[in-house]
Amino acid sequence: MREQRTEDRGRAVRLKAEVETLAASDAPDEEVLGQVVRLVHDEHPLWAWSGIYLLVDGTLVVGPFAGSEEPPEHSRIEVGEGVCGTAVAEQRNQIVEDVREIDNYLACSLSTRSELVVLIRENGRIVGQFDIDSDERAAFTREDESLLEELADLISGRVASLADLLQRPPHLRR
Ligand code: SME
Which atom of ligand 1 is nearest to the CA of 105? Predict the structure, then answer.
């Protein structure tokens, strides 16, 4: 048990260092966030789908994701809708142990059993969120939430800048 915790801490330290390096690189926002999502996803065998939603003009819009080839069915989510929109409306992270027990749930995959949403804030303003799905019941812990909060702080500038870009009309996105 103690060895497991030491191993987890070691993994978390390495992941944070990798995300910090990516965030400071010259690569474009979308590429950086895509690599962050891939890193986070690959570290956790029980995480079936991992993604970032961006808050664009008051609507959550799916950004980089890992765990599926196609974009999710709910690629745009209004504030207040589903687990993702509830996190923004209530301004707090969501850990759902069993998605079958909540009414306000938007299914992206029928096999999903639990879900974790961690808000990403830049200067106090919500600019997006991590959304993670698992096919296992109660797959997420407070430690997972804390780690994603730390990663959120490292990438919040990148998320804000990608959300700002998507807010512009397509011909002005450069
Ligand atoms: N389940 C989410 C929708 C997003 S998909 O899981 C990728 C929700 O209820 O908001």
Answer: 9
* Residue 168 near residue 32 (C-beta atoms within 8 A): no
For ligand 1, whether the C-beta of 38 sits within 6 Å is no
Determine the residue of 41, 50, 53, 74 to mutate for testing ligand 1's pocket, defined as the one with the most ligand atoms within 8 A of the Cβ atom: 74
Summarised one tens digit per residue, pLDDT across range 65-98 is 999 999 999 999 999 999 999 999 999 999 999 9
Q: Determine the Cα–Cα distance for residues 17 and 60; give it in Å rounded to an integer.
A: 28
| CB-count burial class (<10 Å; 0-12, 13-18, 19+) for 16 | middle
Enter the tokens of residue 139.
């797959």
> How many residues belong to the chain?
174
CA angle 40, 119, 145 (to 5 degrees): 55
Is residue 47 within 8 Å of 16, Cβ to Cβ? no
- Global pTM value: 0.95
